[in-house]
Amino acid sequence: MSDEEDNYPQLATYTAPQDVLDDHAEMADEEDIPDEIQDRARVKQIAARQTGYQLRRFERRDGMGEGEDESYEDRMRRVNLEREEERVRQFKEQLAKDEAAKAESEGRVIVDDDKTPPRAAAIDDDKTPPRAAIGEGAGSPPARRRRWDETEVKKEEDTNGEEPAPKKRRSRWDQMPAEGEEEAKPRKSRWDQAPEAGSSAVATSSSSAASSSDEKPSMVADKRYRAITDDELNSLLPGTNDGYAVVPVPEDYHPQAAVRKMVPATSQHAEGGFMMQDEGAAARAVTAAGGFQGSGEQTEIEGIGTLQFLKAEDAQYFAKVLGEGGGEAEDVHYSMEELKERKIMRLLLKIKNGTPPVRKTALRQITDKAREFGAGPLFDKILPLLMERSLEDQERHLLVKVIDRVLYKLDDLVRPYVHKILVVIEPLLIDEDYYARVEGREIISNLAKAAGLAHMISTMRPDIDHVDEYVRNTTARAFAVVASALGIPALLPFLKAVCRSKKSWQARHTGIRIIQQIAVTMGCAVLPHLRNLVDAIADGLQDEQQKVRTMTALALAALAEAAAPYGIESFDNVLKPLWIGIRQHRGKTLAAFLRAIGYIIPLMDPEYAGYYVRECVPILIREFQTSDEEMRRIVLQVIKQCAGTEGVTPSFIRQEILPEFFKAFWVRRMALDRRNYRQLVETTVSLAAKAGVSEIVGRITNDLKDESEPYRKMVMETITKVVTANGAADIDERMEVLLIDGVIFAFQEQTMEDNVMLDGFSAVVAALGSRVKPYLPQIVSMILWRLTNKSAKVRMLAADLTTKLAPIIKQNDEDALLSKLGIVLFEQLGEEYPDALGSIIAAEASIANVVGMTQMNPPVKDLLPRMTPILRNRHEKVQEATINLIGRIADRGAEQVAAKEWMRICFELLDLLKAHKKAIRRAAVNSFGYIAKAIGPQDVLSVLLTNLKVQERQSRVLSTVAIAIVAETCGPFTCIPAILNEYRTPELNVRNGCLKALAYVFEYVGEMSKDYIHSVVGLLEDSLTDRDHVHRQTACAIVKHLTVGVAGLGYEEALTHLLNLVWPNIFETSPHVIGGVMDAIEAMRIGLGPGVVLSYVLQGLYHPARRVREVYWRMYNTLILGAVDALVPFYPALGSAADLANGQDYTRHHLLMFV
Amino acid sequence: MSELRYTANTSLEQLHARYTGTGHADTTKYELLTNQHRDTLSSIVGHPPLLAYLSIADGECQARERFEVLERMLQPCGVPPAKTDE
User: Fold this and answer.
1) Nearest CA of chain A to the CA of B63: how many Å?
2) Mind spelling out the 3-state secondary structure of A701-769?
3) Of the partner residues A1121, A1125, A1153, the one whose CB lies closest to the CB of residue B58
4) Of A15-19, A23-27, A321-325, A995-999, which gets the smallest average pLDDT?
5) Of B25, B46, B53, the CB nearest to A1113
6) Is A1020 helix (H, G, I), strand (E, B) or coil?
7) Cβ-defined contact of B33 to A1111 (cutoff 8 Å)
8) One cellular component GO annotation, for this chain's record (chain B) (predicted)?
9) Do the domains A302-324+333-486 and A734-858 sit in the same CATH topology, yes or no?
10) How far is the alpha carbon of A309 from chain B, nearest alpha carbon, in Å?
């Protein structure tokens, strides 16, 4: 490449080289033009943002297709076969590689692109992308690699149709035989079969592709979609002369179309882009649905209901129930089984794509009918949907929910499908989304409970030594979930056996990984079984396979972490091998061993821990030098844990660890990687806790003036944490000067947008306390200077720093400095950048806080009028800071400002009630209370009551809250008359607002309501008999608070009256209304006593109408829950001679006894 | 069950599992009263002065009275009535 570059002539203008342009044009022709809209739509798809490793779920060939799981025997046989295949393949690749190496050494030109990753790396490292990806990468330059998964569907279409072959070069890897395809029939290995029936994955295209493959080379690069050619088969299989014959395909055999394969290639690009017309059922369905609706618009589909969207893939998948012949009216033509299928599909479509109400009823139906439908038909429909490539988060969530509900109903009927479900659900366990992982765990644990341990083990056993690392990994995680669902003891014998498997190292590896995952998922719940678990994996430390040793060490680390701080005795057996191990091993294994040691040491007794740490440290120090980032982090982690243990002495750390530690780790490079950064800070902080503040801070203070900002930041963060945790008493005068100097430098030079420097500054100054006094003038003048800087960010930071420093300046009695700052900040209130303005106001508020309203300079009477116009600022930060300052002034120094000014602010505050941020709204509401207290409630109240007339609900609600607060601060007698008067306004909103305000008032004033209960009974009579049910609901809320407030104060007559008014509402159906009514009745239990309420409830417990009984029993249950003991004297005496004759004695004789 | 199942009584099963003595629209008289008797008996055991009073009335020591009250909780109202087909 480099000599080509030299050949280019030097040009005066710069543009892309012609061949690059050609290349791009060619690419655009060849593949689909990358479409921005399409890219954006794809972000929602789960598959689009998953890593290559996670996408390997699409490569699983087992457990696909319809029908029940294969038998255990078949699966074991197949897994063994696959393993053998893999071995042969690796062997062949090794041979080819050797050959290539030989050829190279002889100086021949190698045809293959030399950008191919080295084969050894591809095989050895389990984490590499699937082989198909590598094969693809080998054939095309790396720049195009990104497009790999986009082109895939296109390729698959190539197999479908008879299109001419694209001009792509075939790489050697493409010719590799496809592997792991599923047999159509059990007990027959695929070698016995005719190529046509060979695999379900290519079933739709197998006849055309396989037979015509002689003339044209197969163009499908993805091995999963490619048929094996006859040539390949002939070379692989014994021929006719060996006594074998090719059997014709049975006539009644129809390959099962895998759903994913049915999606036309164009469909992925259908989102808003150009689309080819096709005449299939799917197209009709789409037409029927009114076109593709990527998002947003809802579609009404006959027989289905309202859908939120309909994707091309859905139209394809649900073609049977969409479009012509899909309606329920057509159902008469179908058999029972087909009907079931159609019903299930309809329900699934409703659940997946429907609007919430549609979805809800469909979900309920599918749950209720789960046993009727049967496990087979249900999972045959649900599981393929989950494997859809275009699946989005929401759809996945809903489908998983369906599985969960259905599982619960099917119970042990689910057994034949356990493996199928696992194949689909296991990938959720390694999803990046926390909730997906939780959902996956939930399903698997329910599955385990439904299917039983024996079945789970026999189902997952074949996957334990599966050839694919991905399958083993997910299986291990699933097993851990099973263990947590069914208990570790149940699984323990199996785990022991697996961990000692002689047959394959993969099984041992997976077994140990299961135990690691158990430790991770179950945490301290492993403690009772710790010894058993450790013993099960102990032998793994001396395994001949390096990967097994590594995994064992990792599992031990996880167990020790989960068990901390207990359980050291369980690790006795493994200490020695670990110990020998860290001396023998290098690289990854050593890292894992060190990790295990690092987690075990904190569990030990102090003297042992000290001994082990001393022994361990030379190795750690040796590894300080390593260039492996992972190893460096582990070493840091171990050092951190060692430093935290009791048995390690400060002098040991100072002498043995610190010098090397600082030399190796406190370098600029460490600040660049996020994880290194965090680990280093943590470790240094824990070292400081042991070795002392001055030891650490002394070594890094000078680095505060380093020229690299990330490094400065790391230093600052460390100093902050060290000083906050341990104080600054340790720091001597010289270092104090250096520290302040460094902190000021770092603050001034800051360009990054975060709070590290700011927090660091205030932490250091706060820690130094009174010792900072000599430096304050310098610091304040720095702030003053920076407050007038031309960069808004600098001004903002300076103001923020003022906020933090104000308490400390006050503490050092530098009031003059504060008033100077106050004045300058006041002058800066004209600031135009909202972020900076917000900070300035906050700083002013913080100064006002510490000096008090009376001493404040500028005086409050000047400051407040200046704030009034700023209240109109729409920026949240400004609003919050302003409202806080105003609230503070209203609270502490309201008398210094004229009442007129306060009224003006009241009006402005009404606008803030609409703010998005809750803190602002709360501050605004509280301010009303303060202002009302300062200037008397009348004016404020009238403002608020008038505001009840506005349209916005939020504003009205908050006004009612504010009214209640005013009532609380100024006494209810100031407000209740006004509210009662306002209630007479013939306007629904106002009346409702009044009721709400009253509810809040009674909630806030509590016992004080006893003086007002008779005054509001009239209003409640009116509102509880209103036609509007919201009215009654709110009235019930008033009754509730009122009742609880006056309970035990002797107002039973009024409460009984109110209960009689509330009672007729018990049959309301709207959830909020009935909730309010029930609350009021429950409050009556407190106010009137449970006996009275019981006498009401008894009337309806055995009402002939079930609808009535249900309500009454609900109330009875609430009574029982709340006051069962108090009810005893009130139970009715129901003993009767008839019952006695029948054998039941209902008389409570104990209550009739007397002395 | 009626539509209340989806609003008010969504977690009725859980409620019954967690708290004995709660009922539903199909609770029989026998079940209701058995629970009331048990409530009464446990209330007696839970209020030692009441228990003392009853033991005096019965002429038993308190421990025996307490034991008998607890024993009585097993089937406080006698055997359940025979099931009738409805």
Assistant:
1) 16
2) HHHHHCCCHHHHHHHHHHHHHHHHHHCCCCCCHHHHHHHHHHHHHHHHCCCCCCCHHHHHHHHHHHHHH
3) A1153
4) A23-27
5) B25
6) helix
7) no
8) precatalytic spliceosome
9) yes
10) 27
Give the model's pLDDT for residue A326: 66
Which chain B residues are Cβ-neighbours of A1102 within 8 angstroms?
29
Q: Which CATH number fits domain A734-858: 1.25.10.10, 1.10.1330.10, 1.10.3720.10, 3.40.47.10?
A: 1.25.10.10
DSSP letter string, A290-308: TS-B-SS--EEETTTEEES
How confident is the model over A1123-1138, as a mean pLDDT?
Answer: 92
The pTM assigned to this predicted structure is 0.65
Q: Name the superfamily (CATH) of residues A861-935.
A: Leucine-rich Repeat Variant (1.25.10.10)
Q: What is the mean pLDDT of residues A67-96?
A: 86
Least-confidence region, from A319-333, A1018-1032, A1064-1078: A319-333
Q: What is the DSSP string of A895-930?
A: GGS-HHHHHHHHHHHHHHTT-SSHHHHHHHHHHHHH
Residue in A1071, A1106, A1155 closest to B56 by CB: A1155
What CATH number does domain A302-324+333-486 carry, 1.10.12, 1.10.10, 1.25.10, 3.30.70?
1.25.10
CB pair distance less than 8 Å for B7 and A1102: no
Closest partner CB to A1109 (pick from B25, B33, B37): B25
Cβ neighbors of A682 (< 8 A, separation 6 or more) are A636, A640
Confidence at residue A909, expressed as pLDDT on a 0 to 100 scale: 86
Percent of chain A with pLDDT over 90: 50
Separation between Cα atoms, residue A718 and residue A701, nearest integer Å: 10
- B29, A1124: Cβ pair inside 8 Å? no
pLDDT digit string, tens, across residues A670-716: 999 999 999 999 999 999 999 999 999 999 999 999 999 999 999 99
Mean pLDDT on A463-477: 92
The CA distance from A526 to the nearest CA of chain B, in Å, is: 28
Looking at the complex, report in whole angstroms how far the Cα of residue B53 sits from the nearest Cα belonging to chain A. 8
Domain limits of chain A?
Answer: 302-324+333-486, 734-858, 861-935, 1026-1141
Mutate to test the interface with B, among A1124, A1125, A1130 (most CBs of B within 10 A): A1124
Residues making up chain B, counted from first to last:
86
Q: Please judge whether B46 and A1153 are an interchain contact, meaning their C-beta atoms are less than 8 angstroms apart.
A: no
